[in-house]
UniProtKB/TrEMBL annotation:
<feature type="compositionally biased region" description="Acidic residues">
    <location>
        <begin position="538"/>
        <end position="553"/>
    </location>
</feature>
<feature type="compositionally biased region" description="Acidic residues">
    <location>
        <begin position="512"/>
        <end position="526"/>
    </location>
</feature>
<keyword id="KW-0808">Transferase</keyword>
<comment type="similarity">
    <text>Belongs to the glycogen phosphorylase family.</text>
</comment>
<dbReference type="InterPro" id="IPR000811">
    <property type="entry name" value="Glyco_trans_35"/>
</dbReference>
<dbReference type="GO" id="GO:0008184">
    <property type="term" value="F:glycogen phosphorylase activity"/>
</dbReference>
<keyword id="KW-0119">Carbohydrate metabolism</keyword>
<dbReference type="Pfam" id="PF00343">
    <property type="entry name" value="Phosphorylase"/>
</dbReference>
<feature type="region of interest" description="Disordered">
    <location>
        <begin position="512"/>
        <end position="553"/>
    </location>
</feature>
<keyword id="KW-0328">Glycosyltransferase</keyword>
<dbReference type="GO" id="GO:0005980">
    <property type="term" value="P:glycogen catabolic process"/>
</dbReference>
<protein>
    <recommendedName>
        <fullName>Alpha-1,4 glucan phosphorylase</fullName>
        <ecNumber>2.4.1.1</ecNumber>
    </recommendedName>
</protein>
<dbReference type="GO" id="GO:0005737">
    <property type="term" value="C:cytoplasm"/>
</dbReference>
<dbReference type="GO" id="GO:0030170">
    <property type="term" value="F:pyridoxal phosphate binding"/>
</dbReference>
<keyword id="KW-0663">Pyridoxal phosphate</keyword>
<comment type="function">
    <text>Allosteric enzyme that catalyzes the rate-limiting step in glycogen catabolism, the phosphorolytic cleavage of glycogen to produce glucose-1-phosphate, and plays a central role in maintaining cellular and organismal glucose homeostasis.</text>
</comment>
Amino acid sequence: MATASPPLATAFRPLAAGSGTGGGGAHAAGWVAPRRGRRGFVVRSVASDREVRGPASTEEELSAVLTSIDSSAIASNIQHHADFTPLFSPEHSSPLKAYHATAKSVFDSLIINWNATYDYYNKVNAKQAYYLSMEFLQGRALTNAIGNLELTGQYAEALKQLGHNLEDVASQEPDPALGNGGLGRLASCFLDSMATLNYPAWGYGLRYRYGLFKQIITKDGQEEVAENWLEMGNPWEIVRNDVSYPVKFYGKVVEGTDGRKHWIGGENIKAVAHDVPIPGYKTKTTNNLRLWSTTVPSQNFDLGAFNAGDHAKANEAHLNAEKICHVLYPGDESSEGKILRLKQQYTLCSASLQDIISRFESRAGDSLNWEDFPSKVAVQMNDTHPTLCIPELMRILMDIKGLSWNEAWSITERTVAYTNHTVLPEALEKWSLDIMQKLLPRHVEIIETIDEELMNNIVSKYGTADISLLKQKLKDMRILDNVDLPASVAKLFVKTKMKKGKLLVESLESIAEADEKTEPEEEENILSETTEKKGESDSEEAPDAEKEDPEYELDPFAKYDPQLPRVVRMANLCVVGGHSVNGVAEIHSEIVKQDVFNSFYEMWPTKFQNKTNGVTPRRWIRFCNPELSAIISKWIGSDDWILNTDKLAGLKKFADDEDLQSEWRTAKRNNKMKVVSLIRDKTGYVVSPDAMFDVQVYFGQETSVFC
C-alpha cells in the first residue's frame, strides 16, 4: 500500500477506489487534507466524446494542484520517502536510494490521478479496451511519468536541492524486463497513446521475474544471465493481494446433470494482480497495466514431506506455479519447455478474462445482460500468444455463465480482435494438439467444434463441384492441421478403391471416361447409388465406410498422417474467432490480405484492416532529448507537435536557416558528449565527439543510427 508523506500530501486527500472489481487506482493513506469548497468540473467522456458535468469533490481538483507543487515541497516529499520507505538502511546514501525515494514521490501523485480515472470510468460505465500481450517493452518510468505530469523542472530542482542530479538519479532505474522487441514496444506505445487520448483501456501481461536475459560482454564474448530488475523491488507497482483468480491445467471434462460441461481435477494455481500506472501526457487520465504473478496457497506446501527430508517434493507445487512467470519465452526445444510456454499463454488469457468479466458484472449490477458484453468490452490480442482468449471466453460463457453455444460464439466473435505481426507462414504459431489436449482438454473440445463449423461454412461457400478447390480452401483455413476431418465433411471425400487394375466409380467424370456412351438416366442412377454408398450418418466416423464396404475408402486428404504432427494453427483461430484482423503497416496489411490469409480475406473481407505502428514523441523526443525538443518548440512556435506530429512540418520553412542549423548542431554535439562520457565510464575507452557514431538498436529489427 502506497503511503504519501505529509509535506506533499497536504494539498489533497486520497480518493476512494473505484467500484469495479479489483480497482485501477490505489489508496494513499496516512494523511488528511483540509476540507475545501466544492466546485463544478468538466471531464471529457471518452465513450461519447461529450462533456459530462457534475459536482466535483476535492480530489477532482488535482490537475491544478499537481502543477502548482513547487520544488521545495517535492524535495520534502522525496526526503520523507528516503527516511521512511523501508528499502534502505538509514545510514545508506546513494543515487539508487535517491531514485527509489523520487519514484515513490512521483507515485504519490500518480495515485490521485489513478483513482480519479477509474472512479470516472466506473461512473459512466464506458466501453473499455483490454490489450493482451505477452510483452510490454515499457522502458524506464521516472522521466516518462514526471514528463507526462509536467513536473520535470520541479523534480530536477528538488533533486538539486538534495544534492543530486535528475539524469544521474533516473539512470539508476533498471529497464522492466517485460518485453523484448517490436511487439512489446508496440504494446507499450499503445498504452501511452490511449492514456494521452483519454481512452478507457487496460493492458494485461505477465510479471516476468527474470525477463528474457541480460547481456554481458566480457573478454570471452557475450554471456546471457537472468535479469535482476526486481531484486531491489519495483516502486511503480502495487500488489493486489485481494485480486487473484484460479487457473487450471490438466484434469478431465465431464458432463453434469445440468447439461453443462465441467472441467475437473488437474493442477490448480493462483494468478495474483500487480498494477502499474500508465499516465497520459497533459491529462489526468492514468490507465492501468495489470501484470500477473503465479503461485499456490500456502497449504500446498507439503510440510510432511519437508520434515521427512524430501524438500524438493515439499516445494514442488510452489515451484511449478511460480516458474510460469520466471522467464519471457522460455526455451521450448523440450516438451517441458513447450508445456511451460502454453501454461504462460493460458494463464494470461484465463486470469485476464476472469478479471474483465468480473468488472463487467460489477459495473452492470442488477441490469446484467450478456448481450451487452461486446458493447462494453473490447479484447485486443497482440499477436497469437493470447489466442486462447477465444476458447476460454467460450468456456466461461457456456460452462460457468450458462449461455448456449450460439450465444457464446456471437459474444466472443464481437468482442475479440487480432493484431498480426508476421507474414512468414513458418513463423505463425502452431501448438501440438497432443500437448494442448493433455493440458487444456476442455479448450480442445471447443476448438474442435469451431473447426468443424468453419469447415461446414467453407463447404457452403465453395460447394463440391470443384473438389480440388475445396481441398485447397480446407487445407489453407482449417484450425486443426493433420487431424481427421469430421464425418460431416469427410463423407465428401470418399472414393472407390482400385480393383483388378481398374477404377470402379469415383465421379461422373471418371464414369464418362469408363463408358463414353452412358445415358444421362444411367449416370443419374449410378451417382445416386454411389452417393448412397458414400453417405454416412453425421454421428459416425467416415472411415467406417471402409469397414462396411471394402470397395470404398477415404481420400488420404481426409485422414490423419501418423508421420506428421497434429497441430493447432493459432493464427487461423484468431482470424475465425475475432471480428477484426489488422497488420501494423500498410504494406504488411496488404500482404496479410493478399497472401498470408487470402482465403480468409475472400470469405470475410470486412474483417481486415490496417493500423500503422507509430512511436510516442513524448518518450522518444520530448523526454529523451529535451535540448532538441526545446529547439523544435522554439522554431515551430509551440509544443503542440508533442501531441500532433503533423506540426513538425512547420520546420520545413526553416530548413536553410543558419541559426536553426547552428542550434541543431550544438544540441547534437552536446548529446554526443554524453555518449562519449558513457563509453568512457562503461569501457574505459575515450572516443572523439567529432567521430561518426554508429549505434545499433534492436526493436524487433536492427536499426543503425548515425550521429
